[in-house]
TrEMBL record:
<protein>
    <submittedName>
        <fullName>CoA:oxalate CoA-transferase</fullName>
    </submittedName>
</protein>
<dbReference type="InterPro" id="IPR044855">
    <property type="entry name" value="CoA-Trfase_III_dom3_sf"/>
</dbReference>
<keyword id="KW-0808">Transferase</keyword>
<dbReference type="Pfam" id="PF02515">
    <property type="entry name" value="CoA_transf_3"/>
</dbReference>
<dbReference type="InterPro" id="IPR023606">
    <property type="entry name" value="CoA-Trfase_III_dom_1_sf"/>
</dbReference>
<dbReference type="InterPro" id="IPR050483">
    <property type="entry name" value="CoA-transferase_III_domain"/>
</dbReference>
<dbReference type="InterPro" id="IPR003673">
    <property type="entry name" value="CoA-Trfase_fam_III"/>
</dbReference>
<dbReference type="GO" id="GO:0008410">
    <property type="term" value="F:CoA-transferase activity"/>
</dbReference>
Length: 398
């Protein structure tokens, strides 16, 4: 199952947002040519490491081919344009304006390939007064409203415990690229895509948007409970916490009966979702009278048996070791040039019974330089000259 087989992508990205996107395209069957500078993608040098290989690089660059070209050289820039001319998609995450200065802007690239889709990923977009600001994930989380909405009730703002801005931009980039490829096939014209981490994070705040745009209310931090629905959050147990997610009168009546307080279902303070949220402290105390004297497993088991959504709070290690994760094959092993086998978490969507995944792990730096250039029609002597001049670099695997 390789729905994108035949699609060719030139990947000019580094670190996380862009590589995350192009790894998904590789999983789905696209040929992804990763063009790296002589020192390689920054992520090659950031730990944790296994046998000298970066885990972050291995996870986000599976299935790609690596060609090393020095884009500081005019000859290197011309070579990159030749590769782009053979591709359907180019993805870059330079700072705004850098691609144009390198002769790799969308208009220049489409001069010889009008169907080319060019996707630019940046922190704040290609236009606007903040476009030139440097954008790390925490910066974008801070400016988007995510940190302001995240944290304990009455406490300080907190960042989400993952590089959400990068991941969101990578996912939206994939959506945009695939949409543009379909459009290009229909019209014969390519597209220029502008994906901003900030825009993506703002788009992923529907609850905050509802409060601000429709209810004219400030977004307030509420910890591990939902700002609009109750009971919907983490509740104390004798050995930790259990998640309880009740939505609607039927589920609330079932919960009230389970915890030995059936009268709560007819209490006017708890008559609706909005009423329950307004009286959350009283309802929490009632629920925790029951949960706090029972272990998490017992609480979750009883709630689930009653048809009430509930869960323990698990670590990633616990989830990946679970029978469900094993059955769903959330972690896969791919052949790797140095590690032998490289564990990866590929794109998660199943097509029927199959889950598309790249056929191999992340590439060696410059491991595919010669093969990519040969496909352009360069001779052995021409390639040797480029390598001798330092414009191209290759790694020969034993």
């Amino acid at each position: 199952m390789k729905p994108l087989e035949g699609l060719r992508v030139l990947d000019l990205t580094r670190v996380l947002a862009g590589p995350f996107a192009t790894a998904i395209l590789a999983d789905l069957g696209a040929e992804v040519i990763k063009l790296e500078p002589p020192q390689g993608d920054d992520y090659r040098h950031i730990g944790p490491f296994r046998d000298g290989e970066s885990a972050l690089f291995a996870l986000t660059n599976r299935g790609k081919k690596s060609v090393v070209i020095d884009l500081k050289s005019p000859d290197g820039q011309a070579l990159a344009r030749r590769i782009a001319g053979t591709c359907d998609v180019v993805v870059e995450n330079f700072r705004p304006g850098v691609a144009e200065r390198l002769g790799l802007g969308a208009d220049r690239l489409r001069q010889g390939n009008p169907r080319l889709v060019v996707c630019s990923i940046s922190g704040f977009g290609q236009s606007g007064p903040s476009a030139e600001l440097p954008a790390y994930d925490i910066v974008v989380q801070a400016m988007s409203g995510w940190m302001d909405a995240t944290g304990e009730e009455g406490g300080q703002p907190l960042k989400v415990g993952e590089a959400l801005g990068d991941i969101a931009a990578g996912l939206y980039a994939v959506i945009a690229i695939l949409s543009a490829v379909i459009g290009s096939a229909r019209t014969g014209q390519g597209a220029t895509l502008d994906v901003a981490m900030l825009d993506c994070l703002v788009a992923m705040l529907p609850t905050s948007q509802a409060l601000h745009l429709y209810a004219s209310r400030s977004v307030e931090r509420v910890g591990n409970r939902h700002p609009l629905s109750t009971p919907f959050g983490a509740f104390r147990t004798s050995d930790g916490h259990a998640i309880i997610a009740v939505l609607g009168a039927r589920q609330f009546r079932a919960l009230a009966g389970l915890i030995g307080a059936p009268e709560a279902a007819d209490d006017p303070r708890f008559a609706s979702d909005e009423d329950r949220t307004a009286h959350e402290p009283a309802l929490r105390a009632l629920i925790e009278n029951w949960t706090a004297v029972r272990p998490t497993a017992e609480v979750v088991g009883a709630l689930s048996a009653a048809g009430i959504p509930a869960a323990p709070i698990q670590t990633l290690a616990e989830q990946l070791a679970s029978p469900h994760a094993q059955a769903r094959a959330l972690v896969s092993e791919l052949p790797h040039h140095r590690l032998g086998q490289s564990p990866v978490v590929g794109q998660p969507v199943r097509f029927g019974a199959e889950k598309p995944l790249a056929p191999q792990g992340a590439p060696a730096l410059g491991g595919d330089s010669r093969a990519v250039l040969e496909r352009l029609g360069l001779t052995t002597d021409q390639i040797a000259g480029l390598i001798k001049a330092g414009i191209v670099q290759e790694t020969t695997l034993a």
